[in-house]
């Protein structure tokens, strides 16, 4: 079964700092990659996704992620975070097929201090 | 509908009671997932429905948990004889056909006293 690893469970940054959240996966074939975000008290929503093409994808609110196939990675980045970016971030990998074709990481709790 | 709808949004019940949680997915999405999210924890996969195929129940934590999906649309997650450790947010998501993109509902927060 595939696995998804998010390296940091808790990250605390100050406003305007740069952000990079790591995500690595284990599946060796073709994948779709996602980052979801869950703001406090809200439901999970899509931040950005990669299906094919340009490995650098841009999402909402200034976030971007880079797919590096050789490293099985899909790290999330933002050059300058804001207090409103405080949230839980989940990386997910879809390799097709049944339930085990979609795997989430354990999430990273990001806290931005004003 | 425009999005995934879940009800109730909040449910408080007494230990030992049965509860039913409902999910109405996005029209046309054939795949439907249930997850559980406990406080400060990640997403725990519970069950997966795909069209008319037999559901993948491999994530259900005990035989007190069951789910069904009627007519390939609405799904109901049932927890019998609830326990305090069942307290969590239960999330439903439907998947866009051909991709792994999930659309989540707002969740049903279950509190077992």
Layout of helices and strands:
The complex is a heterodimer of chains A (114) and B (113).
Chain A: E1 4-6, E2 10-14, E3 19-21, E4 23-25, E5 32-38, E6 45-50, E7 56-58, E8 64-68, E9 73-78, E10 87-94, E11 102-104, E12 108-113
Parallel strand pairs in A: 2-12
Antiparallel strand pairs in A: 1-4, 3-9, 5-6, 5-10, 7-8, 8-9, 10-11, 10-12
Chain B: E1 5-7, E2 10-13, E3 19-24, E4 31-37, E5 43-50, E6 65-69, E7 75-79, E8 88-95, E9 102-104, E10 108-112
Parallel strand pairs in B: 2-10
Antiparallel strand pairs in B: 1-3, 3-7, 4-5, 4-8, 6-7, 8-9, 8-10
Describe this structure in words.
The complex is a heterodimer of chains A (114) and B (113). In chain A, the strands form three sheets. In chain A, strands 2, 5, 6, 10, 11 and 12 form a six-stranded mixed sheet that branches. Chain A has strands at residues 4-6, 10-14, 19-21, 23-25, 32-38, 45-50, 56-58, 64-68, 73-78, 87-94, 102-104, 108-113. Chain A is built from no helices and twelve strands. Helices cover 0% and strands 51% of the residues of chain A. Chain A is an all-beta fold and 114 residues long. Chain B is an all-beta fold and 113 residues long. Helices cover 0% and strands 48% of the residues of chain B. Chain B is built from no helices and ten strands. In chain B, strands 2, 4, 5, 8, 9 and 10 form a six-stranded mixed sheet that branches. A four-stranded antiparallel sheet of chain B has the order 1-3-7-6, with no helix packed on it. In chain B, β4 and β5 form a beta hairpin. Chain B starts with a strand and ends with a strand. The model of chain B has no long low-confidence stretch (mean pLDDT 93). Classes of the chains: A mainly beta (114), B mainly beta (113). The interface between A and B is medium-sized, with 26 and 24 residues.
